[in-house]
Amino acid sequence: MPSVSTGHALDLEKFLKSLKGQPLEASVNSLISLLKRRQIKGSEPCAVATAHILLQVVARSKWHDVDSLLINVSRTGRKLVDAQPNELVIGNIVRRVLGLIRDEASEDRGDTADESASDAPTPTDIVPPTSISQQWSSKRFDSANSVAPPARPPIVSSYSSINPPKSLFHLLSTSPPADGDVSPFRNSGSSTPTWRGNSGQIHALRSEVIDGIEEIKDEISQVDDQIAASAEVQIHPGDLVLVHQPSTTVERFILRAAQKRKFTVLIAMAPPRRHSAETQQHTTFRKKLSAAGITVVNVMNGGLMAYMSRVNKVIIGARAIVATGGVVADAGSAAIARAAKEQGAAVVVLSGVYKLSPESPFDESSLIEWGDSSTFVSFADGPLVCGAEIRTALTELIQPELVDTYITNLGTHSRDHLSSLISDHYKREDADFHIWEGALP
Amino acid sequence: MSESDAALAQPVSTELPLRTQPDDSTFDIVATYRDLLASDPDLTKPVAAIESLIALLNTVPSTTVYETLDTVKSHSDLLIASVENPLPLQAGTDLFLQYLVASLKQQDGSFDAVRQHLLRNGRLFASRAIAARNGIAEAGWRFVREGKCVLTHGASRSVTGLLERAAKNSEGKFRVVYVRDEVRAEESDRVVKELRSKGIPVAEIPEAAVAHVMGLLRQVHMVFTGAEAVTQNGGIISRIGTYQIAKLAAQAKIPFYVAAETHKFVRKFPLDQRDIGYQQEVLDFSATAPSKQPKDAVDYTPPELISNLVTENGVHLPGYVFEQLLDIYGSLNG
């Protein structure tokens, strides 16, 4: 499949071009079939396509209040997730947009009620640790004394009042218990009665949400650059760095380091497949590295352990990161990570924050994507085609214990820090949108 | 509960607000706590402690803030001293006290509002705590998929709740290995019967067989246990035997999940098995008489052995406990 690498980029472009010309429903359907046929694949193209289609949903679908917008977005999102459940980024982007809508809606509502200054939720800004105690206090005294809270503006930015509080104090606070079975729509519906029928506000909300989605799109496009910014800190002169089937993120990371440092790069490659396009790609990467004066060594995956004792760092590009810190990456990475751990080499995972999923890997096998085994066995080889079952795993899950450092566009993180990144970027009530949506009419 | 207490106690409490510890003698917090636990089988120890403290607030008159805090503190100490294992209670009393202090810091002069809120909503808190258990089941049941096999022991209501929730979705499609405790045969029978009544196939094994069963390849896919208290480093204080199951599971690379409500989080950092918060005499050397075993013995499972905590707020790494405690206490010198 020599044309795949350029092919799916073309498909993405073609799809994005087609968005303007055709009705929304048709665009959604064409994206679904593109995803199903794997004509759009890989985290970044999937994320970009999802962001674009959700922007169309917000801009063009019919909605008259926040609830119906949330329903529209999550319904479309669920269709996309169903079309390609292996690509966790699709769900991530949908959650981000849902959270964005909730933020904007509560912000506008807050402006009329009191001066609750929740800043615009740009996707890239790190929300400071919010003092939840202040949040509950103002709410509590609202209801207990029916006095408007004096001075002390709540500086809660990310956790709006429609969000179930997650502090330990939740047990003793006044807000009604928001448990798992509460529909995520009920909260926003009851708390935003002023929205209905006010076209001016709807118009404002629409443009705010669209701006927010544009920012998400910008973020996705800048991820590689921002990750590469920490390359010089991570790669030291004289290092022996091993990369595995480098993605563009990894390539840019290495190239950025190559501008300033002298080190050696080992490129681990899967055994050559029939018609593989990958070697082609890596040639340009190798040329660029050589031009920068970096020694490049190609190694086959099989003899990896022989090199590992000399390797300082292993750099892996993630396709997705699950909530526990497990990394979905190209097949072969897990063995490399384990070998690195065995020899004490650091395992560094590169990933945009948009690839970080709030989902727990309840069923690890469902995360693995199976590929086309015809790259190994030709259909001309009759006995093998009939007599043997040949499976090719395209991705696999790297156990979180094997990973030392996660580098995202927001910086360098440890495994324990991922949970706060997740809570900064996703709202709790959206975490399971692809499941609760099924119960809706 | 608190209403009836209030009705009984109000006449007493309207006496002169002298500073001579007015009601300490009349209110027996230990008895209240035991009554509460006995009356409601669904109540956890931390919540029962909180409920007793609310009942206490009902009896003492609303005097100064510091007097109230003092009373709450002294009664918490009384309560904690009355039981053998203080950690579960400490989780509740600390949370309650911190809630009082934090709400006082927030807004001056509205102590009465806080007090009224607490007095009025005593039952709400209890029902919320019980709802937390359903939250755990919702958060974690998807671990238990078709064809999986779960090993569990003890009588944690969170775990049985979670398994029952999973049974609702895939009845008879997953299996449970229950580790029997022969000292508590009755309890083991009850739990196994409960699980079987939900259509879950259960295999009972003695404690001595755990390592063997885990060594049978792919027969056990995960371990679920409950906890009496979750310590600030993410470890758990739990029924004795949990630690060895966790060790065996780690050795066999089987994920070890703990189902616990967030109100069981406690500011305690155990260093090792000797440091579980109180003196526990498991070793009773004797040349003549049979050894005595402590009732309700516990052990400490360090966070390294725990894959995930399943709380009503979702599935988290053990480090989550630290974050949450830091969030409300501000410091960790429990």
From TrEMBL, chain A:
Primary site of residence: cytoplasm
Record key words, sorted: Cytoplasm, Initiation factor, Protein biosynthesis
Domain of life where this protein originates: Eukaryota
Region described as Disordered: spans on this chain: 105-149, 179-199
Cross-referenced InterPro entries: eIF2B_beta_subunit, IF-2B-related, IF_2B-like_C, NagB/RpiA_transferase-like
Cellular localization per UniProt: Cytoplasm, Cytosol
GO CC aspect terms: cytosol; eukaryotic translation initiation factor 2B complex
Compositionally biased region (Polar residues): 130-146, 185-199
MF terms in GO: guanyl-nucleotide exchange factor activity; translation initiation factor activity
Protein family per UniProt: Belongs to the eIF-2B alpha/beta/delta subunits family.
Assembly with partners or alone: Component of the translation initiation factor 2B (eIF2B) complex which is a heterodecamer of two sets of five different subunits: alpha, beta, gamma, delta and epsilon. Subunits alpha, beta and delta comprise a regulatory subcomplex and subunits epsilon and gamma comprise a catalytic subcomplex. Within the complex, the hexameric regulatory complex resides at the center, with the two heterodimeric catalytic subcomplexes bound on opposite sides.
The protein's name: Translation initiation factor eIF2B subunit beta
Organism expressing this protein natively: Trichoderma semiorbis
From TrEMBL, chain B:
Disordered as annotated region, ranges: 1-20
The UniProt record lists the keyword Cytoplasm: yes
Keyword Ligase recorded: no
PANTHER family: TRANSLATION INITIATION FACTOR EIF-2B SUBUNIT ALPHA
Example of a GO cellular component annotation carried by this entry: cytosol
Upper classification of the organism: Eukaryota, Fungi, Dikarya, Ascomycota, Pezizomycotina
Keyword annotations from UniProtKB, A to Z: Cytoplasm, Initiation factor, Protein biosynthesis
Cellular location(s): Cytoplasm, Cytosol
One Pfam family it belongs to: IF-2B
Protein name as catalogued: Translation initiation factor eIF2B subunit alpha
GO MF entries: guanyl-nucleotide exchange factor activity; translation initiation factor activity
Family: Belongs to the eIF-2B alpha/beta/delta subunits family.
Subunit description: Component of the translation initiation factor 2B (eIF2B) complex which is a heterodecamer of two sets of five different subunits: alpha, beta, gamma, delta and epsilon. Subunits alpha, beta and delta comprise a regulatory subcomplex and subunits epsilon and gamma comprise a catalytic subcomplex. Within the complex, the hexameric regulatory complex resides at the center, with the two heterodimeric catalytic subcomplexes bound on opposite sides.
InterPro entries: eIF2B_alpha/beta/delta, elF-2B_alpha_N, IF-2B-related, IF_2B-like_C, NagB/RpiA_transferase-like
Regions annotated as coiled coil: none
Top-rank taxon: Eukaryota
